[in-house]
Specification:
Blueprint (H helix, E strand, L loop, with lengths): L1 H23 L7 H15 L6 E7 L5 H8 L18 E7 L4 E7 L2 H15 L16 H15 L8 H6 L10 E5 L2 H12 L4 H5 L5 H5 L6 E9 L8 E7 L6 H12 L3 E7 L7 H16 L4 E7 L8 H28 L15 E3 L2 H6 L10 H31 L10 H7 L2 H46 L8 H10 L3 E3 L5 E3 H19 L1 H4 L3 H11 L1 H18 L6 H18 L2 H15 L7 H15 L9 H4 L30
Parallel strand pairs: 1-6, 1-7, 2-5, 7-8, 8-9
Antiparallel strand pairs: 2-6, 3-4, 3-5, 10-11
GO molecular function: GTPase activity
Protein name: Dynamin N-terminal domain-containing protein
Pfam families: Dynamin_N (PF00350)
């Protein structure tokens, strides 16, 4: 391919230049300037031209994420599949490499992380006492603690949920727990078989299977797994550099895994929201996942969202009617979901946003029919269409990053090495760049200040609305019109986890985000259109994400003492008492400025993005941002000292966009231009 030829040629030139420079100079008496040039060359020749492109498969229990992924890579049973049951128990990352082997690295919770989870699990499954019998009914709420029971039984045997925490802490687990685990095999089927007990949730069916292999049972480490990295040999189905992330459910009860769940979503370049066709219209969990995906898009790291509707072959009709009926329903679902998704995105994005004008926002797929081909051909299953989507995303990103890489390399190679004969500081001053950049930093800060000022009014309006609506948010999440049978344990879990709980029954409960939502409703359009922050580098986008997520974290910090107090409540009418503690103290914190404090923290973090520093790091960053705002990717310093403005002549041989804010390419001396 032309892109590969270009990269190969540039790397050869970089290697040759570096070797010649190293061989021709004495290592004992080398100037700082030459060291700088060598280090820049070394960094570039070792640097990858393509950052990983993370594609997140984000779906609810039984949505068919694993089956979909297996079809995409043309391996029917690679990741474990199990009908409508929760099967994949942790985040699984899959990428390709040039190795001939299949490899899986299994990362476990640390001992301290497991102790924390064990304590919470025991509290969660603890049966209410006799004085609470009027509040809790046998069998109610079991869905919400079922996974906790399964985890305890998987590691400590039957009736483990009835044993106290101290007893379990001293007990020897039934499974063999290695310090780390890496599996390397030549075949996909062999790796899948070995991987199965580590990533598959234990189900009731597993417990009832008398023929379950004893050795396999001893390896059921899924309660202790933090995440799994899988590498497969080079494949046409997964371009090198693309990383798939199978992200299960709506989070995790374990704090570390839930944190990873959130981080995984936030670092995805592309998010696929996966939903079963029978649950896609109006399903509560689906809406939660879609909302989280849109938040990730708002944060800046995610550049594309698609809704993938699975199991499109599920239709109970006579065989001769099924083909046309499937395609007709697919078209109906697509039309309805595209309209709904564009409406949601349209509320927070400019009308000319690329994602709003995409032809394909929704895919209706059938992994089962892809293999079976009974009612649909392969093209109609839309699996090939998703592969093409992956390839287009990859080529688009690779081309952009490759051009950045090549431009950066050329900017160094075209610099006359003679600049290094003068002290770097003299070169910096002689070029006239220092005064030019100082002026541009000042002008840029004024522009940034204008952008921040535009957030002031929406923030104030959002705070005002949040203070008026916090009681509604509380009631919507933590009260039940149908009674509180079984809700006691869910509410206790919410308190134990400081207001955030991935419930199996009620989807993801996040009281802190719900309280902050009125503020987001007001500021979301500003975050979507902020050109300065949207065009900054990846490192700055991460900071933007932290700023965007600061509101619920600030609220959580203020409410944490009350969550802890409520989590300790036991006995008669405990559910109502926990609600009262939370409700009264949310009211109290609102009165003393909880929402205003969250607003000020967000503003403070925004201000921290303005770094008043003329070090090489900041100079490179600010000049690059200025260039972006001017609409150029490069700038010449010729005449800069006199005009104080970037030259209209695009001087690619002088400046290129840094690969990171701290990577600066110095222009040649003014007397050599």
């Amino acid at each position: 391919l032309p892109d590969e030829t270009m990269e190969s040629t540039v790397r050869k030139v970089l290697n040759t230049t570096y070797e010649k420079l190293t061989n021709s100079l004495s290592q004992d008496n080398i100037s700082d300037e030459i060291k700088y040039l060598k280090n820049r060359l070394l960094t570039l020749k070792e640097k990858s031209s393509l950052d990983p492109i993370y594609i997140g498969l984000f779906g609810s229990t039984g949505a068919g994420k694993s089956s979909l992924f297996n079809a995409i890579i043309e391996q029917q049973f690679f990741l474990p599949v199990s009908g409508s049951q929760a099967c994949t128990s942790c985040i699984v990352q899959v990428s390709s490499s040039r190795s001939k082997n299949y490899e899986a690295k299994i990362h476990l919770l640390s001992l301290q992380e497991w102790k924390e989870e064990l304590k919470n699990l025991v509290q969660l499954v603890r049966k209410p006492g006799e004085e609470e019998e009027g509040e809790e009914e046998e069998g109610k709420g079991e869905d919400d603690v079922g996974e906790a029971v399964q985890k305890l039984q998987a590691l400590y045997g039957r009736d483990a949920e009835k044993r106290p925490y101290e007893d379990l802490l001293r007990a020897k687990p039934l499974v063999n727990i290695p310090p780390a685990k890496c599996i390397r095999l030549e075949g996909a089927k062999e790796l899948s078989d070995k991987l199965d007990p580590y990533v598959r949730c234990q189900s009731d069916k597993d417990e009832e299977e008398a023929a379950l292999e004893e050795e396999k049972a001893k390896m059921r480490l899924w309660p202790l797994i933090k995440y799994v990295e899988v590498t497969i040999p080079k494949s046409d189905m997964i371009p090198e550099g693309v990383v798939f992330m199978d992200i299960p459910g709506t989070g995790d009860y374990n704090s570390k895994r839930d944190e990873m769940w959130k981080e995984s979503i936030n670092k995805c370049s592309v998010i696929w929201v996966i939903s079963d066709i029978e649950r896609v219209l109006g399903d509560k969990v689906h809406e939660v996942l879609l909302k989280e995906s849109i938040k990730a898009y708002q944060g800046g790291m995610c550049s594309d969202i698609a809704l993938v509707v699975t199991k499109s072959d599920k239709l109970h009709l006579k065989e001769y009617l099924r083909h046309d009926a499937i395609l007709e329903r697919n078209a109906f679902v697509k039309g309805k979901k595209i309209k709904g998704l564009k409406t949601k995105l349209g509320r927070i994005l400019p009308s000319d946003s690329e994602i709003l004008n995409k032809a394909d926002l929704v895919y209706t797929v059938s992994a089962k029919e892809y293999w079976r081909k009974k009612y649909m051909n392969k093209e109609e299953t839309e699996i090939p269409k998703l592969r093409e989507y992956i390839r287009n995303i990859f080529l688009k990103e690779k081309k952009k990053l490759l051009m950045d890489y090549v431009t950066e390399a050329l900017s160094i190679l075209r610099n006359d090495v003679s600049f290094a004969l003068l002290p770097l500081q003299n070169h910096y001053q002689q070029s006239g760049l220092e005064g030019f950049v100082e002026d541009k930093i000042e002008a840029l800060e004024k522009e940034i200040e204008k952008c921040f000022a535009q957030l002031e009014q929406p923030l104030n309006e959002g705070v005002k609305q949040a203070k008026l609506s916090h009681q509604k948010a509380f009631s919507r999440l933590l009260t039940r019109d149908t009674g509180y049978q079984g809700f006691h344990m869910t509410l206790k879990a919410v308190c134990q986890k400081n207001g955030v709980y991935a419930s199996r029954v009620f989807a993801r409960i996040d009281l802190n985000s719900a309280l902050a939502q009125p503020i987001y409703d007001k500021i979301d359009p500003m975050f979507a259109t902020n050109i300065i922050l949207r065009t900054l580098e990846r490192e700055i986008l991460k900071k933007k994400m932290a700023v965007y997520q600061s509101l619920p974290l600030s609220i959580q910090s203020d409410l944490k003492p009350y969550y802890e107090e409520a989590a300790k409540i036991q006995g008669l009418r405990s559910c109502q008492r926990m609600q009262n503690i939370l409700k009264e103290n949310i009211e109290k914190e609102t009165a003393v400025g909880m929402f205003e404090k969250a607003k000020e923290k967000m503003k403070m973090q925004l201000q921290e993005l303005k770094v008043r520093d003329t070090s090489p790091c900041s100079v490179g960053l600010y000049l690059w941002v200025w260039v972006v705002l001017c609409g150029n990717s490069t700038v010449s310093t010729e005449g800069a000292a006199q005009s104080k403005l970037p030259s209209q002549n695009v001087g690619q041989r002088y400046w290129s966009k840094p690969s990171a804010p701290w990577d600066v390419q110095f222009p040649p001396r003014a007397d050599t231009m």
